[in-house]
Write a structure and sequence with these properties.
This protein is an alpha+beta fold. The protein has helices at residues 4-17, 38-45, 94-103, 106-112, 147-155, 168-172, 182-187, 197-207, 220-240, and strands at 23-28, 50-56, 59-64, 69-73, 79-84, 120-126, 130-135, 141-145, 280-284, 287-291. Helix 1 packs parallel to helix 9 and helix 8 crosses helix 9.
């Protein structure tokens, strides 16, 4: 599942390649991915200018020129893919190819565009020079919202760990009086927005804390170390390309660059990079936890 770093990378790409483009056409291929009837969704979105793209936790927010917003959550498998119309097929003008792509069905699109990172759910034509695909929104969605509706959604989220005003000491205060195991708490978006399985495992390893540790047993110094590790790991991942394997566009050789830097996540059975003991894997609150019993206590 994309977490804060992956969504931040998407945000940066979108602001570079999609911001200030107009949505000239829409093809809703999965009706459950939008919050309105398909015809109504298209009517409201077509013609709108994308003024900005921001992120909160795992949400991406498209700011439209009519004062409304498009809120998307990738959930487990959702991916974005941008197709510039710079290279057209022989015998097709840009406009002809563009029109074909945004009106094609799922099977035709997957056959025609081999690079798509999954089954297309929604297709946006942008100012007749590029196409943006929202792929594999089986659990994810793209919702057209008013300001007040957006605010209700965002109020459900906890602190964004990369907010400019947030530091490790501020995050430690969130643990005061809390019970239960630390890993499920880290992954709860009502506590901290955007931290999922991969980066919770990595932060706990960096801090030397087992994922099953009860919050009440974690010292003040350990809490500070945990959140310092979390912030550093998230920023490093953004700088190095994040965890996703699927590129944003055919020219994207940056996305996924952090994969080789994971120390415990998805490394069960391999030697710990610090002590050489075998990395363990177990289920904690329904999610896989990866850890080293020597380096973490």
């Amino acid at each position: 599942m994309p977490e804060v770093p992956e969504m931040e990378i998407y945000k940066d790409y979108l602001n570079r390649w999609v911001k200030n483009k107009r949505i000239s056409d829409v093809n809703v291929l999965r009706l459950k991915s939008v919050n309105l009837e398909s015809t109504d969704f298209c009517r409201r979105v077509i013609g709108r200018l994308i003024k900005d793209i921001t992120r909160r936790g795992k949400y991406l927010i498209f700011h439209l020129d009519d004062g409304h917003f498009l809120l998307t959550h990738m959930m487990l498998d959702g991916r974005l893919f941008l197709l510039p119309m710079e290279n057209t097929e022989i015998g097709h003008s840009v406009n002809e190819l563009f029109s074909e792509l945004v009106k094609s069905n799922v099977e035709d699109l997957r056959e025609r565009i081999k690079e798509l990172p999954g089954k297309p759910s929604i297709v946006f034509g942008l100012s007749e020079d590029s196409v943006l695909f929202f792929c594999s929104l089986t659990l994810g969605y793209l919702h057209y919202l008013r300001q007040d509706e957006l605010e209700v959604k965002l109020k459900q989220l906890g602190i964004d760990p990369l907010a400019p005003t947030i530091n490790a000491k501020a995050l430690t205060q969130l643990l005061n009086g809390k019970k239960g195991m630390i890993k499920p708490w880290l992954m709860n978006p009502k506590n901290i927005a955007g931290v999922g399985n991969a980066y919770s495992n990595e932060a706990l390893f960096g801090a030397g804390i087992l994922p099953t540790r009860l919050i009440s047993t974690i010292s003040s110094a350990e809490r500070v170390r945990l959140f310092e590790c979390l912030i550093v790991i998230l920023r490093d991942s953004i700088r190095l390309g994040g965890d996703m394997e699927e590129p944003f566009a055919h020219w994207d050789d940056f996305t996924g660059g952090y994969n080789s830097y994971f120390k415990v996540y998805d490394r069960a059975g391999k030697p710990c990079l610090v002590c050489q003991k075998v990395i363990q894997k177990s289920e904690v609150a329904g999610r896989n936890a990866f850890f080293c019993t020597h380096c973490q206590t």
